[in-house]
Amino acid sequence: MSDHSWLSLENPEDVASPALLLWPDRIEFNIRHMLAQVGGDASLLRPHVKTHKMTEVVKLQLDAGIDRYKCATIAEAEMTAAAGASDVLLAYQPVGPNIARLRALQEKFPDTSFAAIVDDADNLARIAGYFASEGAELRLFADIDCGMGRSGIAPGRGALDLCRGILDTDGVAFAGLHVYDGHIHEPDVRVRGEQFEAARHVVEPFLGQLEEAGIEVPLIVGGGSPTFPWHARLAGEMGYRYECSPGTTLLWDAGYGTNHPDLGFQVAAGLLTRVLSKPGSGRLCLELGHKAVSGENPIGNRVRFPGIPDAVPVMQSEEHLVIETAAAADWSVGDVVLGIPWHICPTVALHQEGVVIRDAKATGERWRVVARDRRISV
Ligand SMILES: Cc1ncc(COP(=O)(O)O)c(C=O)c1O
What we know:
alpha/beta; Lyase, Ornithine Decarboxylase, Chain A, domain 1; TIM Barrel; 2 domains; nine-stranded mixed beta sheet; seven-stranded parallel beta sheet; 10 helices; binds pyridoxal-5'-phosphate
């Protein structure tokens, strides 16, 4: 993250602020780098779309031969299918009306194969009942909790029964296991590797139990960005079909760049803001409230400004971010400041579109953040 020469704009006057900026050449680098991790075999990748939520970013990946995706919302699933993906996994257990919405997507996009995850026997019965009543079938992955404790079922007897339930129930087909290790974000590479091994050893005995029970696992979908290289190695070695599912790798951000420089991805999105006010000496107020950059982290970890390296954020409200800097006197109201979000995924969802930057110029091209909406058509 030390060379920020790419983070400059020859024509900032053409960009209203605050704005999300996108560098397609850097996104393409990240796609090539994802592919390189899996030895160029696109069939080992199922990137998550939640980071960017944009048709154009799916299309760049389709052009590189990646045609399977993971998503978290029905709108992301619809955006991805509409972009031309052949296979879309909703890695979010459908509940309530979202069960019927997923079926509606199947009908609307007959050339796309949809799947979802499940971790609860009663909900499995509801999903299966609905799809069977429609004369349809949904591929379902058992969501296995390998230590994150967010969703999923712990490997063991209950998980085995769930897999058998999927196999034995009309209206659904057993697609395999979904295993997300989002609790692993350790910066130290050696410790991260150990944590990956620990999570892996939670899951592997379960594969043995399934084998003993005569249950064939067609596919395992595993991991996010921090453990991507380990999953990529496993994908090549395992006697199972295996897909890696990083998402932040597409746009990258200051958070992952700071904690996981070992992964070698490039920041491909930024923020353009202007100095809005100079409230007292040593302070600048920028147009980066928590409606323009994600406010989920402590105030020091929301956005980085390579052009103001000593900036200390001290206050953020809906549309304002106040920083303190020894260089405040050098800045005037209206001056342009470029920033790198700490966490790009929720930041993208705050913007209606991204301004496309090519050859250090803001083009007239805008990529819509289509799936920031909760509903597109179904
Ligand atoms: C289920 C699931 N899979 C994959 C990912 C992608 O992980 P990352 O953001 O580390 O790339 C996420 C991220 O939230 C996720 O929730």
